[in-house]
Amino acid sequence: MFSGSHIAIITPFKNGKFDEQSYANLIEWQIANGTHGIVPCGTTGESATLTHTEHDRVVAFTVEVVNRRVSVIAGTGSNATAEAITRTKHAKQAGADGALLITPYYNKPTQEGLYQHYKAVAEAVDLPLILYNIEGRTSVNMKPDTIARTAKLSNVVGIKEGSGSLGQVSEIIHLCGPDFTILAGDDPLTLPMMALGAKGVITVTANVAPADMANMVNAALAGDFAKARTYHFKLAPLFKALFYETNPIPVKEAVAMMNKIDPELRLPLTPLSSENRERLRQVMKDSGLI
After folding, report:
1. Residue 285 annotated as catalytic
2. Catalytic-role residue among 132, 231, 244, 252
3. What is the pLDDT of residues 232-260, one digit of tens each?
């Protein structure tokens, strides 16, 4: 259902407030450069420090600006199931095409708890749901057999898989079958995951290089892995540089270097260190982005 290069889009701020004009410009630039979908209010979008009112506004504004030209998959996850349901209901009301729900973080649910969490959301909201598994952010890995069990829920259509394990990806694809959509949750693993059968990526790197990310994914979907490898190696320095510090600190700085936003973050995130800023600037120059 959701194949291609989907951007985990940043949320620009100006003087502490959501910068709607810069955000709208980013969306237009993404669509013009071949991005297949917009994913607002994910980790890269600093969802953890948005108020509920801001979160709802970012999602609704995204739907409004996109205007059905590409898909919108709203980040609606929470470590509280009731809150995840509320955010997902809003995404449906706003007109989003789907919702991305991270596994509950901090409270470390069991595998049964993970299943029951998603089951409750799926039963409460009739909207295509994409699971999001990333143990490095949540401290819990959703295991392949739990994913396969959850995939049987009628409106659970896929997963953003960020475990970093190609073995786990292979097992998920084997257990869930071809109708369940696997999207990479780690940009450097996009190509190898697609070689296994993933349908694309929810990407940080597209914030600075949307055309190259879209071209890599398009080539892989077409079975032209030689062409896809060319883009992979072209993008590899960016894959590394955009994680010099905690995401989204470097990517916001990089987009600011392109004069598209102010590099404003919200505490507890802090600006990129001067040393890493210069390292990032060099990679951006070498990549022809500034």
Report:
1. no
2. 132
3. 999 999 999 999 999 999 999 999 999 99
Catalytic position from the list 105, 118, 160, 244: 160
- Is the model's pTM score more than 0.85? yes
Bridge partners of 102, per DSSP, are 132
- Nearest 5°: the CA angle 204, 229, 144 is 60
Residues 6+ apart with CB under 8 A from 17: none
**CA–CA–CA angle 82, 86, 90 (5° rounding):** 165
Domains belonging to the chain, first-starting first, are 4-222 (3.20.20.70)
Distance between CA 175 and CA 244 in Å, rounded? 35
Antiparallel, parallel or unpaired: β 200-203 and 181-184: parallel
**Known active-site residue 160:** yes
Please give the pLDDT value at position 151.
97
Closest alpha carbon to 79 in 109, 58, 56, 52: 109
Q: Provide the 3-class DSSP secondary structure of residue 9.
A: coil
In contact, 84 and 113? CB cutoff 8 Å: no
- Determine the angle formed by the axes of helices 52-66 and 20-32, rounding to 10 degrees: 40
Confidence band for 1, pLDDT divided at 50, 70 and 90: confident
In whole angstroms, give the CA distance from residue 200 to residue 197. Answer: 9
Report the distance separating Cα 59 and Cα 38, nearest Å: 10
Per-residue pLDDT of 112-127, as tens digits, reads 999 999 999 999 999 9
Comparing CA positions, the residue from 260, 211, 255, 251 lying closest to residue 234 is: 211
CB 244 within 8 A of CB 277: no
What DSSP line would sit under 197-244, residue for residue? T--EEEESGGGT-HHHHHHHHHHHHTT-HHHHHHHHHHHHHHHHHTTS
Annotate 221-248 with b (16+ C-beta within 10 A) or e (fewer).
Answer: beeeeeebeebbeebeebbebbbbbebb
